Amino acid sequence: KELNDLLIRLENVKPSQNAYTILKDRYFLKDENREYLENDWDDIAKRVARHVASAEVLYTDDVEKIREIENIYYRLVLSRVFLPNSPTLFNSGKTMSRKIFTKEVKDMIYEDYKYIYDNKGKHNMLSACFVIPMEDSMEGIFNAVKNSAMIMKYGGGVGYDFSVLRPQGSSIAGTGGKSSGPISFMNVFNVSASTIEQGGARRAAQMAVMRYDHPNVLNFIHAKKNNDGKSVLNYFNISVNIDNPEEFLELVNEDGELSLIHGGKEFDKIKAKEMLKTISENAWKSGDPGLLFLGRHNKYYAMSEKTPVRATNPCGEEPLPPYGSCNLGSIDIAKLINDFDITRENEVFKEIVYWCTRFLDDVIDINVYPLKEIEEMSRAQRFIGLGIMGLADALYYKELPYDSNEGREFMAKVTAALAYYSHVSSSDLAKERGNFPEFENSKYPKAFIPFPMLKEDYMKQWNEKIIEHFNSEAIKYKRNVQTNTIAPTGSISNLADTSSGIEPNFMLAYIRYMTDKEGNKVPLPYINKVLLNKLNSHMTDDLEAEIIEKGSLKNINGISEELKRIFITSMDISPLDHVLAQNAIQSYLDASCSKTINMPNDVSVDDVYDIYKKALSLNLKGITIYRDGSLQTQVLTSNEKK
Ligand code: UDP
What ligand 1 atom has the least distance to the C-alpha of 494? Predict the structure, then answer.
């Protein structure tokens, strides 16, 4: 009943004008003459819910039950409490009979659901995240180019581990020539990506990973040195993988050396400190490379013995084994925060998480994978990535500063609740539908906990519940190898009119320009709704103009210190506080999270170096920094700094 009341209220809140501008440009289905088949958010909610619920035909022949499930999915999406990743919004029901998707749910018969399930085709690719393997041969490399093109075409992002490739200058058997090296091949992938418009709706995105001990690692670290955001490997994020961050940090502190090796052969030696400095210099200049700590991920990944992870998807939140894929979905906690306490055990949140987990598990079944190998891997381990968005707005409502102990306590507890309920749900689903096929080969039967948890006293209650879950009878059952990921939610948070992922708000008010399909710049003015709410009658046109001008409350006269403290924005949060927030959240995630450590323009290379060192010593699975103004193509800038 409580959930019902909540949904009724939220279903009545229509998406904003800005959200509709984006929907119209990218999300509403069109026919072959480019005429709109949809014009309301309701149309998308219905299409997506129906398409995904039709996977239920695999588990029941009770049409009444499928209709009920469709209705719950529909209401979660319509209310924007939960949104799946963009490919699910783009591609559900695409190129299928419109008649079935415009029926009232009460008129749906079993054969309709069966029709949707049986007639899915390559256009119905629903996942955002992929990793494909690289092979050290010409054929292998160009096969990967082709495979990734197919993934990007339908709206997925791809990651690769380039460390597999032999170093530049190595001999090539059969030709007597020398290898041009991994970086030159990255350019081939970049050109391929540049010619693909993903699902006709967005830019292709890729992640290149290289191990810290590959002989070409310095070339890799410098690969985006001359990046202006537009031309140099601009379809790539790049990250250096330090498998064992503790050991690496020790080497840095002792000023020790490490060997650069390939195929068991040592090519060179380099001081760990020098490597970290070089990484810091480049990241200071252009944001790349970031760091990944995939050894740490493998420690918490239940299948690492059989299929170790060596790369992540483009934005880093989803480490995956070769041929792995993951579909994501995010719950907007800002929409829930005023109704109940998500930091404690709560039946309504539990129920929401259960349905979202079931939705994402259904997506695995109804999904059409771009490659047979990806289908096999995805079905064998059943990766799903349920996360949150709206954290910053939720903290505003709760009046907890993002950079405070109380703020971090909130973040850790909300993530623990998410992790606990989704794992309980995954076990419940397994009782009904069976374990993920590799369950017996995984670490779960040995009572393994897939994340480190925090030691703080305030986490005691959640930690105990989590330990009990992974030790108890429940652990005979697990439907999904991983359940939680926090995505950037770059587009879907705009559709939900909430703050993105776990990031603080970059600005409280701004005008963002979206380039539409015709190349026109469309202004999307925005002002934070929680702030509007709080200022209420104190908000005047002059004040609004000043907030748009300055982006934050920091330098505005007449605003109380308390309000300034609560409504903090990204650039006013210290880099260390960004890292501590990431740590609080990462401690309860089995996969990873998308987070940028934003730094002011005037930080030094040493500041970047110190932040990287800090990241090496915590629970983080990686780190991405960005220094304000370092790229010309920055999406958001505050007027004050221009
Ligand atoms: N992604 C992509 N291209 C894009 C944006 C995203 O391929 O332009 C993929 C990428 O793997 C990323 C994931 O989608 O990590 C999730 O991104 P985000 O949450 O921003 O996507 P949304 O669902 O909001 O569109």
Answer: 24
Indicate the pLDDT class of residue 539, thresholds 50, 70 and 90: confident
Ligand 1 neighbour 344 (Cβ under 6 A): no
Identical fold at 2-124+318-476 and 129-312?
Answer: yes
What separation in Å is there between the alpha carbon of 21 and the centre of ligand 1? 19
Better pLDDT: 558 or 207 = 207
Question: For 1-9, which contacts have Cβ atoms below 8 Å and span 24 or more sequence positions?
Answer: 2/339, 2/340, 2/347, 2/348, 3/348, 3/351, 3/352, 6/79, 6/81, 6/336, 6/339, 6/348, 7/75, 7/76, 7/79, 7/81
Query: Residue ranges per domain, the chain?
Result: 2-124+318-476, 129-312
C-alpha distances out from residue 462 to 125, 419, 617, Å: 36, 10, 24
Residues labelled as active-site residues = 313, 315, 317
| Beta carbon of 313 within 6 Å of any ligand 1 atom | yes
Ligand 1 centroid–CA 160 distance in Å is 16
Report the CATH fold assignment for 2-124+318-476: Anaerobic Ribonucleotide-triphosphate Reductase Large Chain (3.20.70)
Q: Measured in angstroms, how far is the CA atom of residue 254 from the centroid of ligand 1?
A: 40
319-355 tens-digit pLDDT? 999 999 999 999 999 999 999 999 999 999 999 999 9
In CATH, 129-312 is 3.20.70.20? yes
Evaluate: CB of 202 within 6 angstroms of ligand 1.
yes
In 453-474, which positions are buried (b, 16+ CB within 10 angstroms) versus exposed (e)? Answer: bbeeeebeebbeebeebbeeeb
pLDDT in tens, 175-228: 888 988 999 999 999 999 998 876 667 788 999 999 999 999 999 999 998 876
Q: Is the CB of 215 under 6 A from ligand 1?
A: no
Closest ligand 1 atom number to CA of residue 158: 11
Q: Say how many Å lie between the CA of residue 412 and the centre of ligand 1.
A: 24
